[in-house]
Amino acid sequence: MKATARAHTNIALIKYWGKRNESLILPANSNLSVTLDGFSTETTVHFQEGLKKDSFHLNEQNVEGDALGKVAIFLDKVRALSGKEIYAQVQSVNHVPTAAGFASSASGLAALAAASSKAIGLSLNDTELSKLARQGSGSASRSIFGGFVEWQMGKREDGSDSFAVQIADKSHWDIRIAAVVLSKTEKKVSSREGMRRTVETSPFYAGWLEQTAKDLQEIKQAIKVKDFEKMGSVAEANCMRMHATTLGANPPFTYWQDTTMRVMQTVQTLREQGIPAFFTIDAGPNVKVLYLPENEAKVKKRLQATEGVEDIIISKPGSGISYR
């Protein structure tokens, strides 16, 4: 009753921001991401008779408190599906800066869903696995798949039609995503709290939902025909509108730092000079820059010269769940 799974994180090109059901983690809007080969989590789950509770080790450190609680609650869902009452040892290695806007929860919960369901003897297809992962972290539903992935919000109250689907595999389009690391510290407002505050208090939120439905259709078409400038401009505008909703919340908040702004300006300057590059930012200060492979040297050089940039990690579209 032991299995190991690896999942890669993803970056949303059309943002998931807000829930229509908190407990089932059902999104207020359908959204779209690209899976990244540069960031991953590998998790081993070992269910064992005789254990009195679940245990969790992250990067070889024993974890207690809320983080362990989240893992145990998720494993309860897996136990309920299997009909087996048995505890587990969970060991994860996270190749993602935790809680700094790099969606470590996406790869972490996707890997946990895959490893735990296999270890306990469930035979879930990718759709079923996506639904399960969603119940731990919404963006984890997308990390089950590689390439370009849409998380369909669904309409049913039980969440049975809310899961991710792959719209193009990783070989469809050779693009690059530079993760520009500005801060590895944990953010002050978690994604979950930020979403809740925005949905409940921001007067901009209704407009965000209306426009995002249009953005999603535009970007899917751009990906299909490999229109890079269209894809990038839609993703960048969608990102800016999402972050505008946080400024309208009560109390207002932002995930950006001064260096975030400098990187955004660097990308805009690259475009003015004829190099197609676009940025997107999740719930954190770090910026992801989209560009084509032939422009990598120029883009990387300009980003490295931007004050406050700590590191740049280059990714291509990555794979979905894998086992070993």
UniProtKB/TrEMBL annotation:
PANTHER family: DIPHOSPHOMEVALONATE DECARBOXYLASE. It comes from Oceanobacillus aidingensis. SUPFAM superfamilies: GHMP Kinase, C-terminal domain, Ribosomal protein S5 domain 2-like. Residues 7-164 form the Diphosphomevalonate decarboxylase-like N-terminal domain. Residues 180-303 form the Mvd1 C-terminal domain. The gene is mvaD. Its EC number is 4.1.1.33. InterPro entries: GHMP_kinase_C_sf (IPR036554), Mev_decarb (IPR005935), Mev_diP_decarb (IPR029765), MVD-like_N (IPR053859), Mvd1_C (IPR041431), Ribosomal_Su5_D2-typ_SF (IPR020568), Ribsml_uS5_D2-typ_fold_subgr (IPR014721). This is diphosphomevalonate decarboxylase. It is an enzyme of class 4 (lyase).
